[in-house]
Structures are given as structure tokens and as C-alpha cells.
Description:
Blueprint: H1 2-10, E1 13-19, E2 25-28, E3 31-34, H2 42-52, H3 56-60, E4 67-74, E5 78-87, E6 90-98, H4 105-108, H5 113-118, E7 123-128, H6 135-149, E8 153-158, E9 171-176, H7 184-191, E10 198-201, H8 207-218, E11 222-227, H9 232-241, H10 245-258, E12 259-269, E13 276-284, H11 287-294, H12 302-308, H13 310-313, H14 318-327, H15 333-339, H16 343-353
Parallel strand pairs: 7-11, 7-12, 8-9, 8-10, 10-11
Antiparallel strand pairs: 1-2, 1-6, 2-3, 4-5, 5-6, 12-13
Helix pairs in contact: 7-8, 10-11, 14-15
Amino acid sequence: MTEIFKAAIQRGASDIHLKAGDVVRARIHGQLVPLTQQRMSQDQVRSLALKLIPRESDRERIDDLTDYDCSWGMAGLGRFRVNILRQRGSLMIVMRVIPFEVPTFEELRLPEVLKKISAHERGLILVTGVTGSGKSSTMAAMVQHINEKWARHVVTLENPIEFLHRDRKSSITQRDVGTDTMNFNDGLRAALRQDPDVILIGEMRDTETIDIALKAAETGHLVISTVHTQDAVQTISRLIAVFDRSEQEMVRIRLSETLQAIISQRLLPMADRSGRVVACEVMVVTGTIRDCIRDPDRVPEIVDLIAEGRDHYQSQTFDQHLAELVKAEMVQFGVAKAAASNPSDFDLKMNFLGDSPEPGSGSADISEHISSDPSFTRDG
């Protein structure tokens, strides 16, 4: 199996699938391809699962496991985020490749304004996007930037731990949910008593986690987390909608007072098919945007405010960044148009500026071009 894993990593695999009764498969350049001719047996998958599970107590109940997350690494091979599941009554393993080195903003081609956003000493910063949009990589780059620039105590709560941070100027305390703490909520409450400057939460999943995260931001900590939403406006609406109607007005006020920025991202195939590039919407929270968050009728105005704040605040909408990527010939026009928040408006603006190609050029289906980039993890 070690040789199979090595071969997959050398070919640029982002995920490896191991299932009883099937060949070993890997996702390479966006496509799921077979790596072996021989099918794996139930005993082989079970034996591998036992090696990957870190806790003896969990290994003892392997026959009762249905969904299990952990991380695993081997010197000279790499690190993986592991999900062990059951399908048709037998075990299956999905392993996601995690780079050893923590990526930088430059390596991920992220906007320069993220350095300013990371410099905040308090408040809430959210990184959003669909599954596989590189949220984990962006958050890791933010922690890495803080680690190199300031002497702070950073506490991370992850399930499982992905990127491993070395202490530099900052002290990084990484806690694995399920191993180092029982759950996100217990870990988050405990973090407030651990003298943190920065708290990273792998994901804000429920009202309790959101509530504690807001309290942490309100009490002078910088909180960084993720939400599975497509853009800033949807993120604000989703966070508020999670709460009961009787609580929503207060949550709006709390969110307007603590939110510092929302970075929403999508990964797109590069025009030369050499990898993927991130398209970002960056909402830097201003006084006017805080007013819009408080007033539900004004929330739709936020998109225009993001666009208008580009020069002064370095904010940007998805469509503004996509237009940049097309002009730089990093992304094909058709791919950018398909990913735009408003494809029709994007088409009109690009035509007006004379930056769109001839009709039909570069309009192939995105799925035909997607390739993997080791700088990004296909995060959950």
C-alpha cells in the first residue's frame, strides 16, 4: 500500500479511495482513475483501517464504526485526512492528501488584502465556499502569516488536524476534536480559559458553536472559522437564519459588531491546465456594511458596497476578480463566466470592456479542465 500511496502522490492525487471489492482509485486532475488491477478484499481494507485509526479504544470497536475521521502520516510519504465509512456493510476508506508544508498567501495566489485582514487583533473572520474550494488551505495560510509576524497564542480546534504548524513568533496549540477534546463546543469553551489571542474553529456547524464564537470575538479574541456558503451575503443570512426568530435581531447586532471580513472562494482550472487558481470575493466590513447587516432590508446592498470599496478597502466581488483572471489569461473566459455570480452581467461587462473572446471560445465545460494543485486541499 505504501508504494501505491507514493505513486498516487507523485501523480498529483488529491484523494485516494479504498473499498472492499474494488480496485484502488485516486482523484487525479479532477478525474477518479484506477491505480491497481487487483481488487481489495474486506480483510485488506479492515487491516488498513486498523493501522490508520490512532486510538486503541476506537480500534477495539472497529466492527461498530460507521463514520470515523482521523489524520494519519508516514515519514517520507505524506499526511492524509482519513474518513473510514461503511457501504453495503463493509468498510471503505477515503484519504485526502495534505501537503507537509503550510502554504503561503503567495503560493495560493490569494489577494494581498488577506495580510491586512489577518492583522486584526479581535473580531470574526470567516472563510467560506463549497466543499473542495480550499478553505482549509486559506485558513492555514492565515495562521502561518500570524505565526511569522506576531507573538500570539493561537489555539486551533480541528476534526481532524490537517496542516501541522511549527511555533515561530507565535505559540500554536492544535487540538484534535475527539482526541484532545470531546467536541467543538467543549473545546471552544475551554479555549477561552487558555489565554488565546487567536482561535481557529474548523467549522461553525450549529447555533451553540456560532454563539460561543461570537462571545469569543466580543471578548477581545480574533476568531477564524469556515462556513459552507457561496458568498458574503449568503453567509450573513445563513448565520442569522440558524437561530430562532426571537433571537435573530440580537444575532444581527452581535454579528455587525464582531464581523471583520468574509473571504468566499471558488477554485477554477487554469487556462493552461497546469493546476487551479482561486477566485475570491473579499468583503472587508465597513461602517456602512455594519448598518446593512443590522437591517435585513439592506443586506442585498452589500454586494454593491463590496464592489465600490475595491480601491479604498481592497474588497472585491467574485465577478471583479474573475475579470482580472481572464485579463491575465489565467482563466478561460467561458470558465470564468460559468463561475460568475451573475453570468449575464459578467458577459455584458466583459464585452463592453472588450475583454471577452469570440463567441464559443473557451466555453468548454469546467469539468473537462479541472486539475489538481497541491497547494490546495479539497477541504470539507
